[in-house]
Amino acid sequence: MATIEEAYAVAIDHHQAGRLDEAAVIYRRILDADPEQAHAAHLLGIVAGQRGRHGEAVALIGAAVARDGLNTDFLGNLGAALKAAGRYDEAIRHFARALALEPAARGVPGNLGSALAADGRIGEAVPWLRRAAALDPAHFETLLNLGIALRDAGRFDEAETALEAAKALRPDHPHPVCELAVLKLALGEFEEGLALYERRWDYTGQSAAVSGKPVWRGEDIAGRTILLYYEQGLGDTLQFVRYAPLLADRGARVLLIVQPELRRLLASVRGIDRLATYDDAAALPRFDLCCPLMSLPFAFGTRIDGIPSGVPYITPPPDLVAAWAERLGWSQTGDSAGQRPLRVGFVWSGNPRRHDPTSHAMDRRRSVPFALMEPLLSVPGIAAVSLQVGDAAEQARAAVAAGRLTDPMAGVTDFADTAAIAAHLDLVITVDTSVAHLAAAIGRPVWMLSRSDACWRWFRGRDDSPWYPTMRLYRQDSPGDWGPVMARLGHDLAAAAARDQNCAEALSRKARPG
Questions:
Q1: Whose CA, among 143, 318, 343, 401, lies 20 to 30 Å from 97?
Q2: Where are the TPR repeats (predicted)?
Q3: Cα distance between residue 226 and residue 38, in whole Å
Q4: For strand 464-465 and strand 468-475, is the pairing parallel, antiparallel, or unpaired?
Q5: CA atoms in the 13 A half-sphere facing the CB of 299
Q6: Calpha distance 360→254 (Å, rounded)
């Protein structure tokens, strides 16, 4: 019978060769024979992490730490498993424990830095990532994470240097290229940024082509049929569907695959011949070319001073607009003097996407608690309307019950309903979520709260948006600090409501393009 040492040797040989099943069987046998074998629990946890079973990895490596809390390998790998599971606070604590025991613990400074960055603590992350890069200047992941953190901190020259260094280490790896693309786009350098952004398909391992048809890259398209399709979020679809009419203007027949929530609304977009979702895409006509929506700016050769920004380019169904006016008692424009309060829509939270730790962390940075937005409801001269969906809507239950906030969202079935409600609003105040795109695309004035590490599409150092002429940006000055943003919003909302007795019409006139 093999000794435990011999069993470990065989298992580790399997593990290092990538034979995870074989390794796991042996680690499990060792652990079953002796539950105090911390190394077996630790290594079995690493296998679970490599398989993407992060909760299982945390439990197993956590058991190893419980048996030997001074082992810095155990602590570091538990931190890594917690980070992969999106449990950043706990990960940070375990990395810190490992470093307290062994200040130069291998790989821990870089992991601590990336966990801090994922938790939105960019200022704290950069020094740790710099320390990790100094310890190992040729470590690809460290340089990549350092570049991303520096970019999110607004230190673009340093970020580009780090990302270029990562790219030089792994010239065929698409990740640093995609991050460089985001950096260039955030700076408005569209020619280079959009070209680099096309490498995102290498990163996902997918192809932009559909049904073997070539991807349209800007060539003459008159008389041909093109299939456009969404690839990312609802807001992205709403933003980039603006290019569909431009294709029709060039003589193309345009087919479009969209998310089910957008199908009814986007039927209003000029130039789209047929709409479908992926469930019924097989019924679409034959097509000659295809293009994902987010590749259209590249195919059109868009530059920051030539963004197609005419609004509205989406129109909610008129019968639905009228039905919601009746439903909400908004059929009358005002009192006997023709006056009414400013109708303001509010959204304070995005989709939390808890299944994806990276997206969930980003949502926590872009969303605000309703309690921070609630004081705006008390601004004299406004009528507050919730456009919030999901669990976050529950945060406003008391305000709705008190009559301080109207919440029509229980009757909403898709974005056509939301757009029909928004069509009656004079202003929408929202975090960076799909409603910001929706309201701006139908031409409503939008005040958008933007986190400090803003999405590239909002650029840097601007309070307007070349994409949307009716949008105003309210940016965080420092990560996580919404206080000054809410103060500016409160001041500006009060001024807008008081500007004119018929303040709704005054604001609408100001925000109207042209």
A1: 143
A2: 72-105, 140-173
A3: 59
A4: antiparallel
A5: 24
A6: 34
